[in-house]
Write a structure and sequence with these properties.
The complex is a heterodimer. By secondary structure, chain A is mainly α. Chain A has one domain: Helix Hairpins, CATH 1.10.287.3510. Chain A contains three helices and no strands. Chain A has helices spanning 3-23, 27-55, 67-98. In chain A, helix 1 packs antiparallel against helix 2 and helix 2 (27-55) packs antiparallel against helix 3. Chain A is elongated, with a radius of gyration of 19 Å. Chain B is mainly alpha-helical. Chain B starts with 6 loop residues before the first helix and ends with a helix. Classes of the chains: A mainly alpha, B mainly alpha. Chains A and B meet through helix 1 of A and helix 25 of B.
Amino acid sequence: MPIQYYIYLCLALFSIGVIGVLTRRNVIIVFMCIELMFNSVNLLLVAFSKMHLAAVPAIIKNSTVGSDGQLFVFFIMVVAAAEVSVGLAIIVMLFRNTHSVDINFLNRLKN
Amino acid sequence: MSKLVYLIPLFPLLGFLINGLGRKSLSKSLIAIIGSGTILASFVVSVLVFFDVKANGASVISLFNFIDVKGLLIPFAFQVDQLSALFLLIVTGIGFLIHLYSTAYMNEEEPQHYARYFAYLNLFIFSMLLLVLGANYVIMFIGWEGVGLCSYLLIGYWFKNNDYNYAAKKAFVMNRIGDLGFLLALFWLIFKLGTATYGDVFAQVDKLSAFDITAITALLFVGAMGKSAQIPLYTWLPDAMAGPTPVSALIHAATMVTAGIYMIARSNILYTMAPGTQTLIAIVGLATAIFAATIALKQNDIKKVLAYSTVSQLGYMFLGLGVGAYTGSVFHVMTHAFFKALLFLGAGSVIHAMHHEQDIRKMGGLKKFMPITHITFLLACLAIAGIPPFSGFFSKDEILMAAYAKNPIYYYVGLGGALMTAFYMFRLYTLTFLGGFRGTHEQEHHLHESPAAMTIPLIVLAILSVVGGWIGIPEVIAKDAHSLEKFLAPVFAGSAAIAEQHHLEASQEWMFMGISTLLIVGVIFYAIGSYKKYQVDASENTGIAKLLENKWYVDELYDAVIVNPLNSLAGFFKNMVEKNVIDGAVNGVGKLVAYGSRQLRLVQSGQVGNYVLIMVLAIVVFILVWFNDLTIMYYLNRLFKMA
């Protein structure tokens, strides 16, 4: 499958994520949109990684070309998992304090 | 012996450091011993150096390189020759006597101020010795500035009195105007010749064009005008009388004010080659001599009379320099140092006895209370008036004879000044010492002769004032009796070779001496006669007398022409430029920052959505900036064409 399809899909997912972050007021949805952007990037990384490996001539056995892209994916997933755990904790605390998950209620850090 | 010449300025410097740093802990007697002892030590070394120079001739002692850059070498060197040896003796000798006198005169001061006084005085002697000893114009300039500083410090010694501080500032500013001339001349000299060392400058003097040499000498003379109180920069000297009387005697009569004469005598070859400047000097000197003498006629402050007399005598010295009588001028510096120091110290003794009363109208009849002061003061008056065989006669006569040889008009005007000198000195003498006492009864009750520490310097100086002139007896009176001229001949040899010699007939010279002496004696008797029965007269002076009493309104003129316009200019800058332009710029920057930050603060709204929006926009902008349009188009084309 040509690489362009992956790129189109990723562009679409990323744009949806950006627009979601910009337009939605529900913190949970904003959060999910961020995850969407992460995953579009992950997808792109994997796609490029496979593309580079495919371009290596067959005579070179055991080539590791493109593997660092996949390593990045794991790295991003780990960071994203950590970020989610912190972010969800913040959201829980926000809900306890304001009984709402509206992002516009988060404009004051004091009180 | 000349090798030890560095000791001469070193002793006063040590005295300055010890007294200055230890002023809070030393006792008064110790301060006096240190202050005077260091000068005595310098005097002893000076005497040894003097005899060494007399026997072995001049030498230059180089200590280290003061300024050493490419193309310019200014060594820290001392010029030990006849001229500097003579000045060393005057400075340290009279300096010591005045230190001794001060120990008694300043005795009422608190220890810490007493120490401050002696520290300043020692620093002055140090600077003056540096000025005299330096082997190039730069070292001379260091001393030149040093004596100006000490003069300022000592005029303002009683700093609690604001008038005295003004007088000190006036002296400093006037001196600075002159110093600028000196400095410009120095730069010019270094620019043209690449050296400031006397020997090298005088050897290469032919390399200078006539314009250069006239300009350099004229600028140096501007420096001398400031330091030696000549028209138009003389007004600081009478005001400098605000300082303690011994300071007036040492700095403002005997030594510092003669620095200009020393400098010109030192540069005599330059001046001999610049006849234009010489004429200028002669005219300025003569004008000052007459002008100051007229003012002195009507002053009532004992020190002011002496101050104007000093200005006038300095004018005679410059007249001598202007007509090429270098020896005569240096001779007059020496004799003037003796009798003027004596006059000031005598005046100090009177002021001491009168409890700081300086108005001669309130004195009178002090003869019977203060016999030693009276006799010494009388001798000094005779010396300054020019009665033979007192010292002033010989030196003044030498200058006036040289002036006659150059231009008879100089002589007649100069003689007029000499007659005025005789008049105001004997007016001062009569009002102070003769007649009846005109002060209060309380003052009369306290009148006393001064202590020995004050009378001994008076006696020594009186002896010098009488015999000091005998080293310069003119040719016509005794053959080969002018030992000073022979002694100084090597210093002025270069000028003597160039300058045309004028000589008067012996009979002419005798005639002038006789006439001038007769006239002066007549004036003296007239002065004594008219002031002997003086009574305090409340009526105001009118006409010319009022003009003289108010010093020709020169101070007022300077105020109107220079000081007030400068003050209003400064006021304009203070009120307009300072307030609007400078403050405006500073405050404007502050206001701009405050305003800008107030506007910028609105961006930080607390709305997470805003932040995110800004972040996304910023990323887009960064991408657009980072990759130019072509790059972006290239990638987009590749992306969509491949599909």
